[in-house]
Amino acid sequence: MTERNQTALVFEGNSFKYEMENVTKLFFPLRHFAFRYDGVCPEENFVFFLMRELGGGNVRLLVQICLPAEKESGPIVCQEESVMPVGLPENQYESELARLLYAQLSQHTGIRPAWGILTGVRPVKLVQKRLAAGMDDDQIRREMTGQDLVSEGKIDLALKIAHVQHQMLQGGTSRDYSLYLSIPYCPSRCSYCSFVSQSISGKKAQELLPRYLMALIKELRVTAELAQKHQLRLRSIYLGGGTPTVLSASQLRQLTGAVKDYFLQENSSLPIEYTIEAGRPDTITPDKLEVIKGSGATRISINPQTFSDEVLRRIGRAHTAQDVIDCYHLARSMGFDDINMDLIAGLPGDDYEGFCRSLETAISLRPENITVHSLTVKRSSALYAGIEEMEDYRPVQKMMDYASSRLMEEGYDPYYLYRQKNTVGNLENVGYALPGHWGAYNIYIMEEIQNILACGGGAVSKVVKPGGLERIYNFKYPYEYLDRFSDILDRKQQLSALLADAGKEWENGIGC
User: pTM score, two decimals?
Assistant: First the structure.
């Protein structure tokens, strides 16, 4: 017998672990899974996936379920099967098993995840591929409804984003790149956070930060030389984290000065989007904003997450909603004309009405960008430890639907979308912007269509090659980044080799 919160996923004649686990997680997002490939089911708490060839050129597909349901409802016991011809591609059998599973769990839980059986993080990429293959919007809509079980509302959203991105991506080349810089420190760690960022309040973190900054600047210099060697064209810069404004004004000036010397002067004739995450209002001061303004940055983020003081307290933030509003007005008074604000739907202690009030407050401020995230509960976050089973995510879906309709009603275009593993209800994160203020870097990184040269702890460089993507990872934590900095520089040489190979492939006509 399996443990109370552990479900056995049992396979016979197939090993479609990834897709079946992720579809099951749509309905039971925090349940643990064990995997068996011998077709032997425990007495209870299992989902069984059968794929067996029959006589007459057919394959039998079966999903059998025996699961304890959430809350006080009774157990889920059911099965469904279908028959398909022999010889189809494996992914067609996998998709059919996913549809059978989705249909049964949806029927017995009353939950219908709006993205259907799409469990990947980039659904807009699927739309882009279908558009590139010559399908029109109506054909895509029919396929996503019938094949992927996606709701009409999510199809509308994905299509709108795909068409906005098409406008944004005109004129790009295989030699374009964006620069990412990581400051993996925050003033405190939010309860939902799963990033590698560390609290700056500790003595060790404060001691490491100056050394980290010096190493990062050295890595930036090496990266700039690499970009020049391969004749790459800089399109955007993103200074993120963490919270970059945990740096003092002088440290921020030192870092942004290096960016200006190594990158902006070299590309002074190009229009370059340059985003700096100002993030937390408890780290923002007038002198830091002056440094950012003088750095050449074109875009900043001031992120409330919520405008409820009680919810801010519950997630571990030491500032108020009014602090966010005051910082926003300060930035406006200093001439910042492209500001992003983040909100999160589904935070602990928040509800539908509270989220709507936060959204309306953000809209009333009229920032150029509003990004709406669904809560993601990852095992490395403090929030995960306090949750035994996820609450019904349908209120969060309602929040996301409200945000979408209200923001578009107010003239904001949805322009990028992605999902994360363990996001509540398999929901999405969506960036909305007033026309002309779409954040290019967000599109480049989420759709994986541009080279990313990344510096700092936890940063990931990406090289786009015909038909694929190659990644080079930096060490995650500041102490590890510093202790093994020689390895970081060696990996920059690996990155250079990847760029050289990719350049040859594009020039040889493998790609465009």
Answer: 0.88
